[in-house]
Design brief:
Layout (H helix, E strand, L loop, with lengths): L1 E6 L14 H18 L3 H6 L6 E8 L8 E11 L3 E10 L5 E10 L10 H4 L1 H10 L5
Antiparallel strand pairs: 1-3, 2-5, 3-4, 4-5
C-alpha cells in the first residue's frame, strides 16, 4: 500500500470551492504514478523498456465533499494482478479528519511496443515479480 498526499488547488474547485468530480480521477493517477515510482518501476522506466500500461476502466464512488484548501490522503493498492492485467484500488481520505471522501479503482493492461498485449512474466520478469509482491493478498 502506498500513501500519497494531495493539496486541493483553487483551480480544481467550482464556485462553492468544492473539488470538481473529474479531479478525483486525476488524483487516482497521481497516486498510482507515485506508487509505481516509489516501488522502483515508474511509468518512465516501463516505457523505456517498451511496456505501456493504459487504463481500460476507471470507477469512482463519491462519499464526502472535498473543498479548497483541504489536503487528501490517497491510499493506493494493487488489488489484482495477472501479469497481463492489473486493478489498482484507491481510497481518498480527508487528511485532517480521516473521513472517507471517495473510493474507486482503475483497471489496466500491459502492452508491448507493437500495441499488443504482453505477459509480463515473459516480457519483463523483474517487473512481474515487483508487481506480484506489491499485490494485496485476499484474507
Amino acid at each position: 500500500m502506498s500513501h500519497y498526499i494531495h493539496k486541493v488547488q483553487y483551480y480544481e474547485t467550482d464556485q462553492m470551492q468544492i473539488a470538481h468530480h473529474s479531479n478525483y480521477i486525476r488524483w487516482f493517477e497521481e497516486a498510482r504514478t507515485f506508487f509505481l515510482e516509489t516501488a522502483g518501476f515508474g511509468y518512465d522506466k516501463m516505457e523505456a523498456v517498451g511496456i505501456l500500461c493504459p487504463v481500460t476502466e476507471v470507477q469512482c464512488r463519491y462519499v464526502n465533499m472535498v473543498r479548497f484548501p483541504d489536503e487528501v490522503l490517497i491510499h493506493t493498492i494493487i488489488q489484482e494482478f495477472s501479469g497481463v492485467r492489473m486493478t489498482v484500488g484507491y481510497s481518498i481520505l480527508n487528511a485532517r479528519t480521516g473521513d472517507l471522501c471517495a473510493e474507486g479503482f482503475s483497471r489496466h493492461c500491459f502492452l508491448g511496443k507493437s500495441g499488443k498485449p504482453v505477459a509480463l512474466q515473459k516480457e519483463n520478469p523483474s517487473l512481474f515479480r515487483l508487481l506480484s509482491e506489491k499485490t494485496e493478498k485476499p484474507c
